[in-house]
Design a protein that fits this description.
With about 180 residues, the protein is of the alpha+beta class. The protein has 7 helices and 11 strands. It has a 6-stranded mixed sheet with strand order 1-2-3-5-6-11.
């Protein structure tokens, strides 16, 4: 979320980026309430290491975040990551495959603009399970500029990638898939 658009994006991409930025505070609170102190990543971390935020705990935890409109996904709940770009620029899948990122906070916003559902995905478990090479599906953008891969949350859960009880050095962190998250 840290890297600003370059100006070469389509109007739809820019509108989506601005919409997601408008929901960042609530999503950051969601992470903070469940983990610890959170701060924005550096531009270098964002662009090269699939890291949007850095959490300060006894050890640092890198968190990537995606904010989706629930109206665009219907009842489907899946983790969607950019798999390739026509430009050849590195994608989330490539960065995560290289070992970058600890958690992926994936948030669905309802039509009223509130967090409705979210998952925390353990990216190490995703790497270790081999799922990055075996998405449930792939889809190219209409203009062919990018391809996205997706994994249903049930697939992630079956492979132990949705965090339900994860220990980081010096502290226990426990998450569950949550529906109808109520702001505290």
């Amino acid at each position: 979320m840290n890297a600003a658009p370059t100006g070469n994006e389509s109007p739809d991409v820019l509108a989506d980026w601005l919409w997601a930025r408008g929901h960042e505070e609530e999503c950051i609170k969601l992470v903070r309430d469940h983990v610890c102190k959170i701060g924005e990543s550096t531009t270098q971390q964002d662009m090269r290491q699939a890291t949007d935020y850095v959490l300060t705990t006894p050890s640092k935890i890198s968190v990537a975040m995606r904010i989706r409109r629930i109206s665009n996904t219907g009842k489907k709940r899946h983790l969607t990551l950019r798999l390739s770009r026509r430009s050849g620029a590195k994608t989330e899948v490539a960065k995560i495959s290289k070992g970058h990122g600890d958690l992926y906070c994936y948030v669905w916003i309802d039509d009223t603009g509130k967090v409705n559902e979210y998952i925390f995905v353990d990216l190490k478990a995703m790497r270790d399970s081999g799922l990055l090479d075996k998405p449930d599906g792939e889809k190219s953008t209409n203009d062919g500029s990018a391809t996205f891969a997706w994994w249903h949350w049930e697939t992630l859960q079956d492979h132990g990638c949705i965090i339900e009880g994860c220990k980081y050095p010096g502290e226990a962190v426990s998450f569950k898939f949550v529906t109808n998250y109520k702001k505290g």
